[in-house]
Every structure is written in structure tokens, then in C-alpha cells.
From TrEMBL:
<dbReference type="GO" id="GO:0003676">
    <property type="term" value="F:nucleic acid binding"/>
</dbReference>
<protein>
    <submittedName>
        <fullName>Uncharacterized protein</fullName>
    </submittedName>
</protein>
<dbReference type="InterPro" id="IPR036397">
    <property type="entry name" value="RNaseH_sf"/>
</dbReference>
<dbReference type="InterPro" id="IPR012337">
    <property type="entry name" value="RNaseH-like_sf"/>
</dbReference>
Amino acid sequence: MAIITDTIVSHIDSIFCYAVELPLKLQREKDILIYGIKRKSTPNHIGYNSIFQNQNINPTNIIRKKITPLHDTFSHLCTKFKIHTSIKNKITFQKFPPWLWKIQLNTELTQYNKHETNPTVIISHFKEIIQNKYSNFSQIYTDASKSQHGTGFAIIKDETKILHKLPQESRIFTAENYALLEAIRYINLTSSNNNILIVNDSFSALQALQNPFSTNEITQNIQSELYSTKKNIEFMW
């Protein structure tokens, strides 16, 4: 049964609509975009050339109708939906041996449930940890937020506060990761102290750093920065 609207709708489209599925045309466009974006990050894949290198089509092979090359279809869809697919600083393999990878992460404060514990107790314990274990460390704090007004992160060191804005659609995990990455880069450029403590409230981002096989590009960049730095950088949640 077709769904009656002000416009003519095919029976097939009506069935897909009733099943809460995309029409075939939109599904094809979605599949092409997903495939194209995936292939752009893997230039060594056999399917890369069919999309991102100019294909010379022999007219004698097109008998009845013109076949639009996959490259042209993908480019048209990217323009239509304003999708940018630039791949920058893609890291495939890390330089460090995975069995030697380890970061210094202090998680003593995880014993407290922040929703049930008086904040003064947590703050008091935090100051105690800093005094007993990190008295000779320069401290840098990172934080990220996401709301209807935007997504961004901040880096705070002493009296310096650096704010960064990210695209609205960025995930909070991405923002937390970028905060860690930019904090390390800032430290390497400005800090004279070789002992650095980065305090971050994203346990998932800090845990991701511990994984030597992470597939997240930003996490890989952070690990690469940590591996190449000459400073002793430790983390605390």
C-alpha cells in the first residue's frame, strides 16, 4: 500500500518508508560515501585508484548509456553534502615497540565517586598527592566541553589559559584527545621543566593512551609525541 502525500511516491519507496529505511537512491549514496571515505584513508588498497585517480573510460565500452565513474559520483556527493575528506598526518604504524609502551598514569582519585563524595575531600586528597609525589613537576590542566553552543577545549598552565574551538559535530572524546595533544605540544615548546604532570578528567582518553594498538588517529599522534619528547610527562586523572 502506497503512502498518500502531496507528491507521487512509488510503492517501493513507500515500503522502505514504512520499514523506517532509506530509499534505495539514498542508500546507494550513503554506501558510496562510506566506501569512498574509507578508501581515502587506505591509499594502498586496490580500490583506491578507482576513486581517487582519473579513469579513462573507453567510449566503445559504453553501448547504450553513459556510466558515471565512481570517482565522479563520490566527488559529486561530497560537494552536494559539503563533506571534506582530507587525510592529514595519518599514522599507520607506531615507531615504538608495543611491548615497551607504557605511560605513567595516576588514578588514585578513582576511588571516589564524585557524585557521592564531598568535593572538599577530593580536593584535599588531590593536593596531598601533588605535594607528596609531584612537588618538582610543572602542572598543566586540560578540559573539554560540548554543548549546544559548541565544542572545544582548554589548556591551563599557571596564569596562562589557551582556548580552542572545534567543529560543532566533534565528539567530546575527540575534544579531550585534542586537549592532550595540544598540551604536550605546548609543553615541548614552552616549558623549561623536564618533569611535567598533565591533569585531565577524561578517563577514557587517558585509558586509550595506554593501548599501544590504538586505531584512533589523534591517540596515535599523542603517543608519537610522547615517544619523541625528551621530557618526563606523566598523567593524572
